Amino acid sequence: MGQCYGKTYVNGNGKGGVVEECPQSPLPSAGNGAASVQSVKTPARSSSTSPWPSPFPHGSASSPLPAGVAPSPARSSTPRRFFRRPFPPPSPAKHIKASLAKRLGPAKPKEGPIPEEGTEPEQLLDKSFGYGKNFGAKYELGKEVGRGHFGHTCSARGKKGELRDQPLAVKIISKAKMTTAIAIEDVRREVKILKALSGHANLVKFYDACEDANNVYIIMELCEGGELLDRILSRGGRYTEEDAKAIVVQILSVVAFCHLQGVVHRDLKPENFLFTSRSEDADMKLIDFGLSDFIRPDERLNDIVGSAYYVAPEVLHRSYYLEADIWSIGVITYILLCGSRPFWARTESGIFRAVLRADPNFDDLPWPTVSAEAKDFVKRLLNKDYRKRMTAVQALTHPWLRDGSHPIPLDILIYKLVKSYLHATPFKRAALKVLPL
Predict the structure, then answer these.
(1) CA–CA distance, 169 with 205 (Å, rounded to integer)
(2) Residue partners of 30: CB distance under 8 A and separation at least 6
(3) 3-state secondary structure of 435
(4) Containing domain of residue 335, as a range?
(5) How many structural domains compose the chain?
(6) Beta carbons of 187 and 173 less than 8 angstroms apart
């Protein structure tokens, strides 16, 4: 607060008094975001008339105080002093936590009363999925190979049929953790999406889904080459441009395939890309569709899901479409090329603020040695305005990737041709019909 000072005034009866004045100055903010107010000792005032008379003067019969109660010596108001309490904006982290609470259910109390016999839960959830119940007869479960928010993954081996002796991966989701209808629907949707997205070289193969009284089992292809994140770390934190191109093309290809099928992944990050083997030229597979969803062309999603470092600004604003996946690819590409994250903070709320307000750094090393095409590619993926962001198909045709060694997949070419035809004028369509194929 600004420094207060006093000056002498002369009232009507000729007696002097001390008046406290404070220069107008902004209040310094306290650590918690509210304005801090310092206590100031002021000289005692005489009981003479104040230059700022109270609506109930001392001794007035109209005073609201009960009879016999002396009024406070303090004036009823302080001139030219405005107390403002600026509060920080609400943190988007609260929305993430609220979204997780919806999916995972409320936190369990450490201690609680023991329910009496015969009492039933308030709401019974249907945890029957209609999947096969013969998991133990068809598959032999191995050791755990991974763990996530919604379940853990184990290696396995087929016992019979086409999958006999074939190494497999089994994602095990506990029914005990399905405490909400949303959590149950997430599992149903994940299996539906895996069934719908079959046939792409960079998509993990789905084989089967089973259940028993305790768990749901999702049987998939086993990828033994480790995560993309591990490869980045093993290379000293970054890739060369040529090696990064090969990775980015695979990511864009599978994401474009998902988008063509009307599926948004919503959790693209290096941990969700696995290599089929330890070989340097091994194919990479996209996994974990637990947060994915089907989306219509005229639809926008509003639930906040994903991982903090890779979440798009429009996701935090609760209105997003397929472009949210493209932002995540931009973050991954940035990491591949320089070895650091474009948005970083010590807390989740700080990360979200950086995503919403900060711009990626392209000045520090090694960016001065990175090609202009690569920097332009990343900037066009990390455009905060989703309407100006490249699509997966447009990114595949960017000059940085179009060096001839990475051909555009056939399904993407067909998509581009169909899209061009649909947006063409009737005259252009008629001209296209007479052109020889």
Answers:
(1) 10
(2) 36
(3) coil
(4) 228-406
(5) 2
(6) yes
Look at residues 150, 134, 105 and name the one whose alpha carbon lies nearest to residue 287: 150
Is there a single domain that holds both residue 190 and residue 265? Answer: no
Binding residues for ATP: 171
Q: Give yes or no: residues 196 and 326 share one domain.
A: no
Catalytic residue among 186, 208, 267, 288: 267
Closest CA to 148 of 179, 177, 118, 189: 177
Same domain, 217 and 235: no
Average pLDDT over residues 93-98: 59
Q: Is 411 a catalytic residue?
A: no
More confident residue, 206 or 84: 206
Res 48 pLDDT > 60: no
pLDDT given at position 382: 98
Q: Are strands 263-264 and 215-221 parallel, antiparallel or unpaired?
A: unpaired
Q: Where are the beta strands (DSSP E) in 276-410?
A: 284-286, 293-294
Q: Is 379 exposed, middle or buried (0-12, 13-18, 19+ CB in 10 A)?
A: middle
Give yes or no: residues 146 and 236 share one domain. Answer: no
Residue 44, domain member (yes or no): no
Spatial separation of the C-alpha atoms in residues 166 and 160, rounded to whole Å: 10
Q: Residue 141: is its pLDDT beyond 50?
A: yes
CATH number at residue 146: 3.30.200.20
- What are the angstrom distances between the C-alpha of 246 and each of 6, 60, 210? 74, 87, 36
Structure tokens at 66: 């009960």
Tell me, yes or no, whether 146 lies in a domain: yes
Mean pLDDT of 101-106: 59
Burial of 299 by CB count in 10 Å (0-12 exposed, 13-18 middle, 19+ buried)? exposed
Q: How far is CA 180 from the centre of its chain?
A: 21
Query: Phi/psi class of residue 95: alpha, beta or left (left: φ > 0; alpha: ψ in -120 to 50)?
Result: alpha
Q: Are residues 217 and 232 in the same domain?
A: no
